[in-house]
Amino acid sequence: MSSPGGPWDPRQQHRGSGSFQQARPEPARRTNRGWLVFALVLGALVLIGAMAAVLVIGFRGPEAAPRPAPPAPPPTTTAAPAVPGWQVVAVPKRQAVYDVPQDWEIDPAPENVHAVGPPSDAVTLTGVSHQQLGFCPGDDNSFRAMAGVSARLGPDNAAVAGDTLGTFVRHAFTRDAVAPLVEGSPPEQLKLRGGRTAIRINARITLPAPAGCDSRAVAVSVVATNNDGRSSVVFVAAADQDVPGAVTPGTLDEIGGSLRQR
Question: Which of 8, 78, 87, 133: CA 20 to 30 A from 108?
Answer without folding.
Answer: 8
